[in-house]
Each structure stands twice: as C-alpha cells, then as structure tokens.
Amino acid sequence: MRSRKLLSQRHPALYFLAVWARRGRRHLDWLFDGKRYTSLHTTEKLPYRIKKHQSVLLKKLGESDMQLQINKVTNLKIAVKEVDGIVIKPGETFSFCKLVGFPSARKGYLPGMELSFGEARPGVGGGICQISNLIHWLVMHSPLTVTERDHHSFDPFPDDGRVLPFGSGATVFYNYRDYQFTNNTKYTFQVNLWLTDKCLEGELRIDTELNYAYHVFEKDHQFLKIDGQFFRKNEIWREKILKFESGKVVDTELVTKNFARVTYTPDSYKDIV
C-alpha cells in the first residue's frame, strides 16, 4: 500500500514556512532560555584525554551518488573549524547548531547527503551530522549531560564496516534539530576535531584526571519484519568503571532504546505476524 504524502511534501511552501518558524523559535530560545552557551575556543589542549574516536570520511552507501560523499568532506572541513578547540566550562551548554551556524552555499558548503522524508537526498551542508555523531560518542564516555539529541527515524543503508552501535549517533538540522549537552560538573572539558586523509578524528579532554571511565555497549539488537515492513531495534547501555580498582563496575545504566524503520532488506530478521 502506498504511503500518503505529508501535507508539507504536497505543498513545499508550507514546509518552508514551518522550517523558518521553528528556526525563529530556536533563535528566541538561544536569547532567553537562561542557558550559558559555550563560545570559547583555544588551541592549547587540556591536559587529560577522556576519549578519542575516528570515523571514515568516504563510504559507498547503497546506490547513492559518490559525489555527495566527496562534497561532504568539504562540508566537514568548514564545520570542524567552528567546533575544534571549544571549551565547556562548569555550568555551560554546548550547542552544535549555535556554534556551526547555518550551512549555506555562501559559506562554501556543497550539496551532501541528507536523510529526510524517509529517503536520502542532496542538501547543501549535508553530511555534517558525522561531526555530531562523533561528538555524541565522546560525550557518552564522560559525565557530561546530554540535554538535546535527535536521531534518524529510519535506517537507509545496510551496515558497511559499522564500528559503533546502531542508533548511537545524533542528527542535526539547522537549527531546530540541535545536539546539546551541559557541563553539570566542576570540571572543564574541551572538544578537539581534525581531518586526516581518510578520517574525521576527535577527542574529548578534561582539566583534571578522573578516577573512573565509561564503557558503552549494545544489547538486544534485532531486525524485525512487521506487516511487510522491516524495522531495527536495540538498546545502548553504559557502565561506569573505576580505573584504579581493577576495572570494578560501580554503575550500569540504560542510555537509550532504538526502534527505526529499515528501507532495505536485512540478511536475517525475525518475522512477526
């Protein structure tokens, strides 16, 4: 059965107006929500590293145009400059969209891949979610508090060398789908990002060494077929581990449960009638 198009898909002008209304609301939030947003960048690195991660720049995703992946690298180079070296002091909030700003062609952004309305399609600035995905993975390994995070409502491509658990990313769309976290600790943190020939790399640093660390892992991963459609589910958990007591686990918590539609046929799945 054919799915009905949303009103905003049938009338693009309504979609345009809705987007800019939401963007206007977000600008008002930034002015009046009472949060202290971080803005200080420094090239001097804080002394202790909490976590480092890297993600591959160019991947062949299904039948998508590889040029969108190539353009994405340009987009990442522009956006990384706005985030690299950002310092998050006690009481401050990190806002990805506030730091990076609107990804316009005037700033040099190119059409990259965006996931919207259930499909992958070109959009100026597409692909910079790779940065927010990486930062979220770093933050999950720290005592920082994630206060705003969105993730895609569907999974468009089969896994191809996936390293991180499904659903562990953070999508952004300027500016009403933001990625934010707040520093509710007494410590100062820093996010550093850079690109190599093959990877986007990043690290989270801190001014004081912690006596604990975090381990993030996946549970209960499954593909399901329900009423002829494919879905994917899992849970993401986190353990807090004492570093100097033989890796003793002192806390285990459920971070998130994921359930999303899949737009491809998985190799194996559980058929639920």
Question: What does this protein look like?
Answer:
- This is Vancomycin resistance protein VanW.
- InterPro entries: Glycopeptide_resist_protein, Vancomycin_resist_VanW.
- It comes from Ohtaekwangia koreensis.
- Pfam families: VanW.
- By secondary structure, this protein is an alpha+beta fold.
- It has one domain (17-209).
- Helix content is 22%, strand content 37%.
- It has five helices and 15 strands.
- It has helices at 7-10, 12-32, 66-83, 96-100, 129-139, and strands at residues 36-37, 48-56, 86-88, 92-95, 111-116, 119-124, 145-148, 154-155, 180-182, 189-195, 199-206, 212-226, 229-242, 248-262, 270-272.
- The strands form four sheets. The protein has a five-stranded mixed beta sheet, with no helix packed on it. It has a four-stranded mixed beta sheet with strand order 1-4-9-7. The protein has a four-stranded antiparallel beta sheet with strand order 2-11-10-3.
- Strand 10 and strand 11 (199-206) form a beta hairpin.
- It is globular and about 50 Å long.
- It starts with 6 loop residues before the first helix and ends with a strand.
Secondary-structure map:
Elements: H1 7-10, H2 12-32, E1 36-37, E2 48-56, H3 66-83, E3 86-88, E4 92-95, H4 96-100, E5 111-116, E6 119-124, H5 129-139, E7 145-148, E8 154-155, E9 180-182, E10 189-195, E11 199-206, E12 212-226, E13 229-242, E14 248-262, E15 270-272
Parallel strand pairs: 1-4, 8-14, 12-15
Antiparallel strand pairs: 2-11, 3-10, 4-9, 5-6, 7-9, 10-11, 12-13, 13-14
